[in-house]
Amino acid sequence: MKKLILLPFLALFGFAAIDTGAIAVIENNSNIKVSDNVFGSHLFSGSFATVKQHMYNPDYRLNIGDMVLLKMWGAFEYEQSLSIDSQGNIFIPKVGVIKLLGIRNGDIVSVITKEVKKVYKDNVFVYADMDVYQNVSVFVTGNVVKPGLYEGLSSDSLMQYLDKAKGINPDHGSFRKITILRGNEPIKKIDLYDFLLEGKMDFFAFRSGDVILVDSVGSYVSAKGEVLRPFRFESTEPSMTLKDLSDLSGIKPTATNAIVKSYKISNHLNINFYHLQEFQNVLLYAGDEVEFVPEHSASEIRVSVDGEHDGLHTLVLKRGATLQDLKDNLTLNAQSNINAVQLFRKSVAKTQKNLIEAQLKELETLALTTPSVSSEEANTRAQETKAILEFIERAKRVEPKGQITINEKTALKSIILEEGDVINIPTLSNIVIVQGEVGVPGAFTYIKEQSVNDYIKLSGGFSDRANKKRVLVIKANGKAESYNASPFAFGKPTINDGDSILILPKAEGKTLQFTNLISQILYQVAVATKVILDI
User: Fold this and answer.
1) What confidence tens digit (pLDDT) does each residue in 324-334 have?
2) How many of the other CB atoms lie within 10 Å of CB of 11?
């Protein structure tokens, strides 16, 4: 089953088309480098080019200038490192000239032994091995970062020569179509995906004058989401199946569906939705973008239970379960304050975070754009702006708790739980906590007759920086009540055991707009985190 959505392809999307036999699309985003998203682009960082070592290659053909280490013992003893001369020969005393040019590395011992046996029939033994390989010069060209002629050993791998050329150009170079030419004729085709995915690399003996040609990238598709390798992948054919892409990108077991974006010649964006069972039959074309997603329909939810209780801390309930259902499954004890149960939800925390960040962005814009009329005022404003920006950075780091305040009149059976909810059962407490802008913040035993002002007096009274117009009383169940402690204000909240009193700092800004905005941010942070942020 699939859903098809047809959207107009507007210029504001910022896409560009490239003709590669099909329509290839690259997102035009100046903050994202194409090379960062190309599978294989991490290969060439210089680690291959710096490796220098002789590797045994039995198929290597001996060349002029190569050094052969020869040892003979028995009736005739001789040990020497011999260079293959300009005519392709080595000379052994009492044996004579032996031609080695073009001989396989694996046949050195048999070739030399055959010639030695012509002179010494018995009791002479031979050992020979390559001592020093002659350097070869190989051309690296095509879609590499730095084409040129590079010197190395014949036993050096393709990766070493490519790395010396600073690697394949990730923007338009192919990792799957690499050709080695000898005498202007292709002698080997290489697909680096064999190495990247399976670690396979054919051994190949280079000769001077060989050419490594990196072709241009053809079709490619991008993968993201529930995959191990979220990259742009190249196809050797005009199209590949969705199953091929899921294998290349390493689809995670959690992925069940794929969203495919296709950019058509008709200037339309097609968005299709496919199930896992359909992947084998879905064809992808150049420029397609695929997001693998988990689409599960769970019949249960998992919630966490913290605080004062004797039961499990993780419960699995039927989807649609209520807070009352959870309560019925809890094992409470004498210290459990079930009347002040607290509910925390990730989505609410995210909303609180977004609200605070929006206000901080407004404050930042105001701080950076407010003009000054004189140089003296400009210096003062600069210091104020610095302090405000420091406050903004501290405020950005706060993490809201995402608490849903449960009104005492709300029936628990009407509150439906969601996946990932956290329920906290507070401990019965006869303590009232006072924090913030008071002389001595602390915790005090609850006395029924005492008011907000009484507890503030017990804490040493308001400090000079206290905002008396906005005192917060946080009830045991998380409900926040604002209180104006000015002498002529009315309406004092009742204090119960387990409550907290938060005295916010007085906000001072360049203008009334600054002051009000900072005060609002301080209030939002205090309600969302139960923490007072200093300014």
Assistant:
1) 999 888 899 99
2) 7
